[in-house]
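Entry for the shared binder. Reason: the reviewer on the internal report wants the predicted structure included alongside the sequence.
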Amino acid sequence: MLLALGVCGVVAVVLAWLVAASACKARLAALRERIAQPPEDEIAFYDPGRERRAESRARELLRSCVNEEEWAMYRDLGFLRVWGAGGAAQGADGVAPYAYLIYPHKPIVAYVPQTSRLLNEYCVEFPDRERPYGSPRLPPSDDVLAKWLALSADERSLIESSNLHFAGRQLDPDLVRADLAALRRWERERIGQRPATIEPTPDPDRVPAS
């Protein structure tokens, strides 16, 4: 008797699984068909140039907010540097004891400028809550601007609300060090391109004012 009940139970489970599997297959087939042939209203709303235009507007906004050197840094290198503690805490050599690198859609990296030693990664997200569809992420330049504003306005709050990881958790340390080396070269080149200050030649016939 018990054996018969056990067999019936197994059969019932198998039949229920077959029904569920059939329903899952039907839903999967419908989903594949929808992806292959989306409704006309979805096609009408899809704009392949939307992401590009959004990023172009974001770059213009970023350019209007940061200074000339910061904009040139982002334009040429693809990231921004922000000095720690708002740039106010200076070491003996006039350089802040720590700084951050801001990448689009990547963790903020803290490092020591004097030695390029990597400290921590801070993971923060700024979703685009105004988009009715598409990616929830901000355009890359908007993401950089949001991090820059947060660090500049309230560094401690941003750091405390972020997910803290040791350096190397998400970003390759060698690539970050390569970026720091590129930043140093970039700064040296900019210094070399600045016009030298020409001191006025004193006029030997001019009588100094008494």
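Summary line for the report: Residues 50-193 form one domain.
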